[in-house]
Amino acid sequence: MILLPNSDYVEDMELILAVDLAGGLVVHGKSGDRAGYRPLTWGLAPSAEPEAYLSALAPRYLYIADLERLQGRAPQDDLVRRCAAMVERCYLDRGFRSPAECAAVPGVTPVVGTETAATAIEDLAAYPGGYLSIDVKGGRVLPWGISPTEMLARASAFSFEGCILLNIGAVGTERGLDREELEELRACYSGRLLYGGGVAGTDDIRLLADAGFDGAIIATAVHRGTVPIEWLRRGHPC
Q1: For residues 33 and 184, what is the distance between their CA atoms, to the nearest angstrom?
Q2: Residue 33 confidence (pLDDT) above 70
């Protein structure tokens, strides 16, 4: 089903639980300040131990950020494999730095982040698939400092299955989304497009759907109760 602006049909939109892993635990990310991330033991979380956490929340789809590997330390691949086996589909941002690394964890959808994946934008052409994460902080794409709209327009030339617009500065803030900005972003890229960062509740999910986004990556809003856990378990808005 194709979503049109102002459509009431959001059932096909994918809802994905974001899990940041650091030191073998689920941590709560906020505004990209990784040094300040702490174990997630509030909201719906019975434990910051990843498998217990996922057993309790029971999401259909999962997005994992391996913060250890993203920061240049040893990857948590064994833990990632166990977590990925608990869901229908798992997206993994492991701080991939070359196309060869994308096969490091079989059975996941690799997420190639602009923050780490290439020295020059043109180097992204070497990646054969997965999703391109357009990592944004302060309104600019890391590390090149261009606008998200320009990066989305350029992404169409690469072989990725889709893109993720990840507003790192808004992660964990529930600051909410702007309809005009979302529509401008969506207009720049015709492929599958997911959004993460600052989703405050069900109204933002509807904004994303109306703008034509194919999915939302969420966490804080679920723990705050502004997005029903049942939606996450179904994998789509109910």
Answers
A1: 27
A2: no
DSSP alpha helices (H): ranges in 21-173?
50-57, 67-70, 77-84, 148-155
151-160: burial string, b at 16+ Cβ within 10 Å, e else: bbebbeebeb
* DSSP SS3 for 207: helix
Q: Is residue 65 within a helix (H) or strand (E), and if so which, with residue range?
A: strand 61-66
Q: Which of 11, 54, 16, 32 is nearest to 162 (CA)?
A: 16
Q: Is the pLDDT of residue 48 over 50?
A: yes
Amino acid at position 221, single letter: A
Chain-centre distance of CA 33, in angstroms?
Answer: 16
As given in the structure block, the two tokens for residue 143 are: 């590390």
Which residue reads 């803030």 in tokens?
Answer: 173
At 186, is the secondary structure helix, strand, or coil? Answer: helix
pTM: 0.92
The model's pLDDT over 158-217, given as tens digits with 9 standing for 90+, comes to 999 999 999 988 786 667 899 999 999 999 999 999 999 989 999 999 999 999 999 999
